[in-house]
Amino acid sequence: NHPFIGKGFSPVGESENINVVWSDNRSGNYEIFFAKYDSTINTWKHIETGGLRITLAALDSKNPCVTSDINNNIYIAWEDNRVTGRNNEIYLAFYDNAKDDWECTGQGGTDIRVLADLTQCNKPVVTFDSNGELHVLFEGSRSKDSTEIQHLKVNSEDYREHTNDRPGADLRYAPDSSKLKSELDWFPKHSIEGGL
């Protein structure tokens, strides 16, 4: 018996497929697993093997969630403490439906580190808006005394490229102020370089 720590369900595209994710500690630490109900053949995939392993981390991966886009590509987010051993960060795995290929450590690829500049990141939720843009929401804090809901809107095409783990925030996912500049004529008082 393996405990369910987190689970998520997502209808996929126009079909009635269901994606399920969970974490359990069958390997000694908590890892993320995935299964899919395929309505075209009326069966579960990966259930007979205990789930398709998504993560292969030295420490715990927990509280996963799942969503999919209109092309049946699947996105899984979770909290993970592999870098510091105590502070969680948010990671993503991506399934490319056209290539029938996962991008995640559990399947020989790389997990995608989303954000690393907060003290703690927990309980992610991933979803798509009507424009097809991927949104990641999660609890985030810079200190142990304050937790806020954090929002990150990202281009899902970014997840088809590998980015190595590295300290600090990944600038590919930084907010884009170009609309503020073009539509509202807003400009920052200081440059990033000057602020640093």
- Number of DSSP strand runs: 13
- Which regions contain 5 or more consecutive residues with pLDDT less than 50? 1-9, 159-173
- Write the H/E string, N to C: EEEEEEEEEEEEEHH
Q: Count of DSSP helices?
A: 2
Radius of gyration: 18 Å
Q: How many angstroms does the end-to-end distance come to?
A: 50 Å
**Average of per-residue pLDDT values:** 75
- Helical proportion, percent range: under 10%
Structural class: mainly beta
Q: What kind of sheet is the major sheet?
A: 5 strands, antiparallel
Strand coverage percent: 35-45%
Shape: globular
Brief sketch in words of this structure:
With 196 residues, the chain is mainly β. It has helices spanning 178-184, 192-195, and strands spanning 8-12, 17-24, 31-38, 43-45, 52-53, 61-68, 74-80, 89-96, 101-103, 112-115, 120-128, 134-143, 146-154.
Structure write-up:
With 196 residues, the protein is mainly β. The protein is built from two helices and 13 strands, in the order E-E-E-E-E-E-E-E-E-E-E-E-E-H-H. Strands 1, 2, 3, 4 and 5 form a five-stranded antiparallel beta sheet that branches. Strands 6, 7, 8, 9 and 10 form a five-stranded antiparallel beta sheet that branches. A three-stranded antiparallel beta sheet has the order 11-12-13, with no helix packed on it. The longest helix has 7 residues, at 178-184. The N and C termini lie far apart (50 Å). Residues 1-9 and 159-173 have low confidence and may be disordered.
